[in-house]
Amino acid sequence: MTFRYLYSEWDGTQEIGPLDPDELLASITDDMMNFGDLQHALRNLLQRGMRNPLGQRTQGLRDLLQQLRQQRRQMLERYDLSSAFEDIKKRLDEILSLEKGTLDRRLDEAERQLQGGDSPLRAFEEALQPSQQETTAEEQQRLSQMLKGIAEKKKNFLDNLPEDMGGQVKELQNYEFMDPEAGAKFQELMEMLKKAMMDTFFKDLYNQIANMSPEEMARMREMLQELNQLLSEKMAGGEPDFQAFMDKYGDLFGPNPPQSLDELIEQMQQGMAAMQALVDSLPADMRRQLQDLLMDKVGDPHLQRELQELAINLDILYPSRELQNQYPFRGDEELDLLQAMSLMDDLQGLDDLEKELERTQYGGDLEDIDEEKLRELLGEEAAETLKQLKEFLEILEEAGYIRRKGKAWELTPKGVRKIGEKALGEIYSQLKKSSFGKHALPERGPSGERADETKRYEFGDPFHLNLGETIMNAVL
After folding, report:
1. Are 300 and 362 in contact (CB under 8 A)?
2. Fewer Cβ neighbours under 10 Å: the N or C end of the chain?
3. What does pTM read for this prediction?
4. Cβ(67)–Cβ(386) under 8 Å?
5. Residues 155-197 pLDDT 10s
6. Which DSSP letter does residue 406 get?
7. What helix, strand, coil percent values describe the chain, rounded to 5?
């Protein structure tokens, strides 16, 4: 009977058998024999990974750290952070250009009308006087003069805007645009700035704020006011009732609300750190302008005041200096403000993940690594690597070679015997290698020429007796 075998290229669907616990134990034996420390041996295993039965290498923590740092380096080399500021300036310049262009056209049309030409302002006039189908020449002249005055006043207002971008935006918030497209684009810019400001404190909360009624906005202010009271109580050494706060306002925090005051503070700190990192990473001349630009864009002065107090309380309670980083961007790809803030969130996440991996690499627990954050930032393959590293310890434990002792691991008697067997095998292998032939000798039984001490006498062999010993043996 003949057998046929079909070989094909690896496509990732082939099933790989589970790791052999003996192979895992063998991979830490050398470290155990050299250092006598199981924790050290396991750390080395998790750092470097190992090869599976098919010869494919399972990555370790060291590889994950290398991927993380490579991804951060690629981000810094790809983007131009100052373009986020330039994007705001570009949008504002486009808005002003559209509005000034419309004003210039209105002035030209009004001037031609005053000089007795055809009225290109007919549609605009009808919009102002929908009840009148026709106007007298005198009324048209008066209307054109009025429109000219309005356009000149608006143009003069735009020509005297502050030079800094923050001042321009502040003045334009109370300006009534004559160009509909310019007005719509300005509202889009305001929405983006408001969202960026709110996301600094509460992720995903802006969409709720944007659609809130006046009553709901008042409730939001009350929530911030009570949150500031909780923080003040905590600063005074008290124990604020966070559960009562969440019972009242928990619906404002989305489907995954924080479970403790410390968790809420941590979330807000991360958002503030991302914004601060964005500001710190900008050129010096852009920092103040961006801060001024965002300072009063929440849209409600009372809400803004509560947010400012919240920022002060957070900085007093938990200084965020350790969370702030300055990133040296070197790329040329442009991005807007919201994209820049999202990028800062990712970079902050990479920094946090790097700290978790480093702590685990030097003695921490694998469970301390945020698997979801790892999957989000480094991909599914990195999350699978973490899962396999956890399986290393589970396989050794299930095989009875190691066991938990508090937060550490220790060898079981079975594990000690197994390592001892391997060590003795290696020792005897070295002893045999040092004998004649320099190779292992698994054969048993006689081989080669016998020495005189053990060889039977045969006729013709040399016969040298020790007479004294021979007589003594005969007597005894």
Report:
1. no
2. N
3. 0.59
4. no
5. 888 888 887 777 787 788 888 888 889 989 988 888 777 777 6
6. T
7. 65, 5, 30
